[in-house]
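Reply to dn_fold:

You asked what the input looked like. This is it:
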Amino acid sequence: MNAIARIAAATAVLSTVATSAFAATGAASGGGLLVWLFLGFLGLIVATQLVPAVMLLSGIIQGVTSGSAAEESAR
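and this is what came back:
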């Protein structure tokens, strides 16, 4: 029981001391060149993934619309 009390006390002390490590150090900067390059790269990835998504969606729409026309001509 004494060991549990020691562990609880140590955890409490360390958690109160460690919270200051997560405090903000100052005002955030506007972002450097590396940040903007990273965001641009992410935007490029998203834009590149949109091309196959649009092609797939147009294929699905064509398949649905042409499938209904083929059923009507078969009747």
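The first helix runs from residue 2 to 18.
Hope that clears it up.
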